[in-house]
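Complex 444.
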Amino acid sequence: MAKSDEMNTILTRVGPGTPMGNLFRRFWLPALLGNEVIPDGQPVRLRILGEDLVAFRDTSGKVGVVEAYCPHRAAPLYFGRNEECGLRCVYHGWKYDVSGNCLDIPNIIPPDNFEAVKARLRIIGYPTWEAGGVVWVYMGPKEKKPEALPPMEWISLPETQVHVSRWLQRSNWAQGFEGEIDSAHLTFIHGVTNYEGTVQEVFMHDGAPEIFVRETDGGFIYGARRKYRDGYYWRVTAWVLPMWSVTGAFHPDKSIHGRGWLPIDDEHTCTFAYKFLKDEGYTAEQIEKTNSGWSFPPRMTKGTYALTDGTLIDTFLPIATRENDYLIDRELQKTTKYSGIYGINDEDRGIQEGMRRAPGRQGTIDRRFENLVRSDAAILAARQKIVRLAQNLENGIEPVDQGFGKGKPTGALGMVTPIADFEELLTVYAELIPHTNAAAAPLN
Ligand code: FES
Ligand SMILES: [Fe+2]
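Predicted structure with fe (ii) ion bound:
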């Protein structure tokens, strides 16, 4: 394992040419929600893995995720006219299709070799794929493009059974993601004082869960075992490469849910959240409750955000922010709610955005100051594994050659049972926690 500051650099830097940036570029990534773009409608400004992009839906309904700036004189294509199957720069009229092909250069007299000129002036246009209410994008080398989206069940369910959302987190992706595989924090930051009979009860009795990690084809699956009455409360969470969680625990409407932590750049992240019901659609009431901000997504508004260098992106902006102390209520903290902060994501994001910063690196934690304990086992395993995968890729070993990005969708679970052994739990509840495991080796 690399020394911790070197490990931290590999883990957190995602721009073009970095080891982690290259690893992310081997997977289909979520770019935006499908309903954010309508045919011939307004484009959406994005930054993904440090690259500035615009997304637009053309006249025929195809979505393009293309370079943000016009190659003529670097004008922002965001202001372009989205018409007749392409985006036309309003400065001098150059026009591009969803794949980045140059269709027109109206401010020159067409030369004899016009087709060759246009071919030379194409822009980046990444392959896209719409599924699960999300526009997915692939930003890696053409010949390495995976045939499948990350193996998660929600992506192929009818849209009435799925709820997806996205919003801005002002931190590096890794500390956001690490919160997903940190089962111990539930008892504290998400805890309530009078928990008897609430959905929180199962994790309020024991704040020091035992963690068991097992490698899967998609990433890993881990169990957090808490003592609960005469048995155990098990919370089984999966990690699907490169940055998705699947968790089955503690949701009043019985949803399975999770998040994907898409790096905008080294300092900002777009959190994608999904939840789904396996067998039935959500009621209007359930959707309304979900959108109220009590868990994921947080209370938020659609808006524009200026990144560190001033570049604007179009995203969803949480209402509880660093500037308003996440609306913490100290009275609530003393009486009924452990954190004093309203929503579950407000709680997580409030802590993750404020973690000790690495010198000169806004939004990135300085992991040299941490002291990890036993209940942080899954975090440590994930870091080691993803850094190893990034290093392996530097040496020419593709993640797909190590079994990743393939396999069955991975499931998750939250339940009370007398079973104490993780392997036994996985066997008994194999149907509820489907996963494939090429390596078949426990990680700890
Ligand atoms: S800058 Fe876009 S056409 Fe001139
Ligand atoms: Fe949390």
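The chain has two domains: 28-144, 153-292+348-428.
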